Amino acid sequence: MPIITYREALNQALREEMQRDDRVFLMGEEVAVYNGAYKVSKGLLEEFGEMRVVDTPITELGFAGVGVGAAMVGLRPVVEFMTWNFALLAIDQIVNAAAKMLYMSGGQYPMPMVFRGPNGAALQLSAQHSQAFESWLAHIPGLKVVTPGTPYDAKGLLKAAIRDDNPVIVLEGEMLYNTKGEVPTEDYIVPIGKADLKREGDHCSIITSGKMVLVAMNAADQLAKEGIRVDVVDLRTVRPMDREAIVASVRKTNRAVVLEEGWELAGIGAQIVDYIQRDCFDDLDAPVIRVHQTDVPMPYAKAIEKAAKPDLAKTIAAVKKVMYLN
Amino acid sequence: MAAKKRTDGKHLPGDAALRRELLHTMLLQRRFEEKVGEAYALGKIGGFCHLYIGQEGVSTGVISMLRPDDYIITTYRDHGQALARGMTPRSIMAELFGRVDGCSRGKGGSMHLFDRNLNFLGGHGIVGGHVPIAAGVGFAIKYRGGDQVIACFMGESVVNTGAFHEALNMAALWKLPCLFIIENNKYGMGTAVERAAAIKDLSRRSDAYDGMHGEYVDGQDVFAVRESMERSLETARRESKPVLLEIRTYRYMGHSMSDAVSGTYRTKAELDEYLKRDPINLLKARMYEAGDLTESDFAAMEQEIKTICQDAWDFADASPEPSIEALHEDVLVDTTS
Ligand SMILES: Cc1ncc(C[n+]2csc(CCOP(=O)(O)OP(=O)(O)O)c2C)c(N)n1
Ligand SMILES: [Mg+2]
Hints:
Chain A is α/β, with parallel strands linked by helices. Chain A folds into 2 domains: 180 residues, 3-Layer(aba) Sandwich (Rossmann fold), CATH 3.40.50.970; 127 residues, Rossmann fold (3-Layer(aba) Sandwich), CATH 3.40.50.920.
C-alpha cells in the first residue's frame, strides 16, 4: 500500500469525488490559484477549472451561505475554511441554516454539503488561532462531525462526507497534514459514526479522536514498555458518537482516560464520561480521568503554551493514575 | 439611476384578466392575514407571527413577473410571498396551526414556509442570513448554465448587516442572476430606517459594487413594481447580473402580533397618511375607472376569497397535529449519493 501524507490523502479524496460527481465543487479562500493555504487543494484548479474550484473573497459568512444556497438547489459544495477559527464568522450559516434546513422545511430540503478545514492548535499561534471546536459543532442536531486522525481515515471520511446527503463537518488537524500513513489506491470510504480500535490492550482504555489519536498511540507505545497494555479507541466521528465502541472497550479494561484537544467544560469528553457512567457503572475499577486543554486561552510563549496543551506526559500520567500506579 | 414610475389613470398596463388576477392575489393575501390575526387571538396560532398587510403590492408585483422555474427566498414575514407564489391557503394555514398538512409538516410555523414544488426556498428567521443563501442559488444557476433567477426579499434593516454586503459583493463579482429586493416598510421592529442606516436612498447601496444596477420603486403601485421587475429581469436573466431593488412600502400592522399598531415608535397620523395609499384600494380604484370591474364584481371577489379563507381555517383545524414520531424525523436524511 502506498504511504502518503494526510494532506495528499485529503487531496485524493477531493479529486476522486470531483471526478465521480460533477455536482461537487470546492470553495474557499485561496483554494484555487494559491493551491490552498495548506496545499490540500493542490492541482485541482488545473483539473477542474474555476467554476468548480472557487477562490472566494475573505467573506466566511458569505461563502458559507453560498454553499448552503447551492446545496439547497442540488449542488454538493465542499466549503473550506482556512482554519476553523475563522468559521466563527460563518457559524450562523452552519448552525442556523445548514443544520436546520431539512427540519424546518419538514423534510423538503436536504443539505448535501461539507464544511472542512484545520482545527485545533498548531505551534505558537496564540489565542485566536489555536482552538478546537469539536464540542461546539457536535452540540448541534442536524450536523455530522468527523475528526480523522490518520491519512487513511482522512481520505475515507472526507469521501464519505462528500457522498453524504447531510451537512458534514470535517475537522482536520493542521499538525497532521504532514503525517504519513498507508492509504490504499482503490476506492473506499470510512463509514461516518464508526469508531476504530487503533490499539488493543486490556489494562486501560484511552478514548480519543482527531489529532489526539497520535498522542494516544505514543502513550500506548511508552506504556507498553512498562508492561501496561492500553486499548486506544479512536472515535473518528464525534457526532453521531459510537457509544457501543466506548462501552465495549471500557467493559473490557474497566478503566478509562478520555483525551481531547479542547477545553474541559462542556467538552466532548464530558459526553463520553456520561456514556461510561450510564453504561459501565458497575464495570469501573477507578474514576474516569479526562485530559484536555487547560482552561485558559492559548498563550504564545513556548513553555506556557506547552503547559496549556494536552500531551503525551499528561496522558501517560492519567493512565497511571486510573491504574493506581503512582 | 432610479426614477419613481407611475402609470396614468385610464391606460392601465396588461389586460383586464391580468389586472383582475393581480387584484385577486392581493386581496387574498389581505383577507387571509386578517383571518390569521383572528386565529392568533384565539390561540390557534402560536409563536412569532408577522403580518404583511399593506405590503401586498410588493409580493404580487415581483412574483407575478417570475417564471415557475425561478426561485424565491424570503424572511419570516413570508405569508404574502407564499400566497403570491401559489402556495395554497390550506397548506399555509395548516402550517400556522402547527399541523401535519402544513407546507412544512408543522415543523416550521409562520416564519418557515417552504414549498419545494414551487421553488419557494423558505422563510428565514435570522435577519440578513438568507441573503448569502440567495447568492448561492444564483451561483448554482450559473454553475448549471440555466437562465433562471432568484428573487430574494428582505426588510430594509437587512442593508445594515454584514451578510448583505458579503452576498452582494460576491453576486456582483461573479455576475449571479440575483434580484435583491428590499421591502422598505420604514421600520425594523420599532427602529425607523433613518435611525439605523447611514444612507437615505437604500438602492444606492448598489453603487458600492461595480456594474450592479439599483433602483427604487413605489411598492404601493403594483404596476410600477412590475415595470421595474421587467427591467430588472432583463438584467438578471439575460445578462446574468444582480440587481438591487428598493421597493417602498408600509406595514399597516405591528411588527409582530405583540406589537401595537401605532403609538410607540410611529404616530396614528403617520399610519393614517399611509393608509390613503393602500395598494389594494389604489388598484381597485384604477380598475373601476378603467371599467375593468364593477362594485358587484368586487363584492363577488370578496365573497369568493372569504370562502377560500374559511376553507383554509376549517382544513387546518381538522388536520392532525404531528405525531410524536415526527419529532425525530427530518433531522438527517439517510440516503447517500
Ligand atoms: C440577526 C437578527 N437580529 C435580530 C433579530 C430580531 N428581529 C426580527 S425582525 C427584526 C426587524 C427586522 O426589520 P426589517 O428587516 O426592516 O424587516 P420587517 O420586519 O420590517 O419586514 C428584528 C430586529 C433577528 N431575527 N435576527
Ligand atoms: Mg422593515
